[in-house]
């Protein structure tokens, strides 16, 4: 019988997906958010395994992950799974580069580790027919990751042997934003960076807004391709299709 698994990331959408997948396999998840952070080593002492996901656009992800690794080592954890990103070493995107530095911390942390590198989340786009607004070209290529697939893959590497020391790039489908809009029956609105800054980005703190603008510029030039075969292998089934994802929102 597998004991509980600590899920660092509190109530974030990634953490929720992992907790749901663990529950589906009959495994208790211990959610760890900001309130538990001062006592992290004590919380982690209740388990032997942890999933680590930093808050989105964290200002210092390397330090966040370093604190998690040090607490995990102090608590005697046997396995740590870190949620990174596809193409972490992309110097033009500060938040990706932060994950590359955090990956280095995990690899040198003295705990058996697995690193997951998901593509952009499919659920970042509305799938219910609402207009899709982006600030980069609509035909940019992506490897998109369904949150349910990610949660199931994370549960597999947390609970099963053979994944120690592995780094998995994870996408469910290959698609462009235009493909997603067409499947959802939605209008695709492509904003200029200036228009996005004056509308969707106006309420964001300057650092986050600048990091997102850098990400949009990268997407406009390169997209964010990611492979689908590792996801299929970890799930033991075909990943969720675009049509299935859209149908689930109807």
The fraction of residues in strands falls at 15-25%
Helical residues, percent: 40-55%
* SS-derived structural category: alpha/beta
Spatial separation of the terminal alpha carbons: 38 Å
Biggest sheet, in brief?
A: 6 strands, parallel
The CATH top-level class label: Alpha Beta
The CATH topology is given as Rossmann fold
Question: What's the CATH H-level superfamily name?
Answer: NAD(P)-binding Rossmann-like Domain
Pick out the low-confidence regions.
Answer: none
Element pattern in H and E: EHEHEHEHEEEHEEHEHHHH
What gyration radius follows from the Cα positions, in whole Å? 18 Å
Annotated CATH architecture:
3-Layer(aba) Sandwich
Quantity of strands, as a count: 10
Topology:
Layout: E1 5-8, H1 13-24, E2 29-32, H2 40-44, E3 49-52, H3 61-75, E4 79-83, H4 94-107, E5 112-118, E6 132-134, E7 142-144, H5 147-159, E8 166-170, E9 173-175, H6 177-184, E10 188-190, H7 193-198, H8 206-222, H9 229-235, H10 242-248
Parallel strand pairs: 1-2, 1-3, 3-4, 4-5, 5-8, 6-10
Antiparallel strand pairs: 7-9
Helix pairs in contact: 1-5, 3-4
List the defining traits of the structure above.
250 residues; 6-stranded parallel beta sheet; Rossmann fold; two-stranded parallel ribbon
How would you describe what is shown here?
The mean pLDDT is 96. With 250 residues, the chain is an alpha/beta fold. It has a single domain, classed as NAD(P)-binding Rossmann-like Domain (Rossmann fold, 3-Layer(aba) Sandwich). Helix 1 (13-24) crosses helix 5. The strands form three sheets. It has a six-stranded parallel beta sheet, with helices on both faces. It has a two-stranded parallel sheet with strand order 6-10. Strand 3 (49-52), helix 3 and strand 4 form a beta-alpha-beta unit. The protein is built from ten helices and ten strands.
């Amino acid at each position: 019988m597998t004991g509980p698994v600590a899920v660092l990331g509190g109530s974030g959408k990634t953490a929720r997906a992992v907790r749901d997948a663990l529950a589906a396999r009959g495994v208790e998840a211990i959610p760890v958010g900001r309130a538990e952070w001062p006592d992290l080593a004590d919380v982690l002492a209740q388990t032997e395994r942890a999933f680590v996901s930093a808050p989105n656009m964290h200002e210092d992800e390397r330090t966040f992950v370093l604190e998690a690794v040090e607490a995990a080592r102090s608590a005697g954890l046997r396995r740590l799974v870190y949620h990174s990103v596809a193409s972490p070493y992309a110097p033009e995107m500060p938040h990706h580069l932060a994950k590359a530095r955090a990956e280095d911390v995990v690899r040198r942390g003295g705990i058996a580790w697995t690193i997951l590198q998901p593509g952009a989340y499919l659920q970042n786009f509305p799938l219910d027919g609402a207009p899709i607004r982006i600030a980069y070209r609509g035909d940019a290529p992506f490897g998109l990751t369904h949150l349910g697939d990610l949660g199931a893959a994370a549960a597999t590497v947390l609970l099963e042997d053979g994944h120690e020391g592995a780094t998995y790039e994870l996408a469910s489908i290959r698609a462009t934003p235009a493909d997603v809009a067409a499947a959802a029956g939605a209008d695709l609105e492509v904003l200029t960076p200036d228009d996005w800054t004056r509308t969707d980005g106006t309420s964001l703190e300057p650092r986050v807004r600048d990091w997102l603008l850098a990400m949009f510029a990268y997407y406009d030039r390169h997209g964010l391709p990611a492979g689908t075969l590792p996801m299929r292998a970890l799930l033991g089934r075909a990943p969720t299709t675009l049509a299935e994802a859209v149908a689930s929102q109807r």
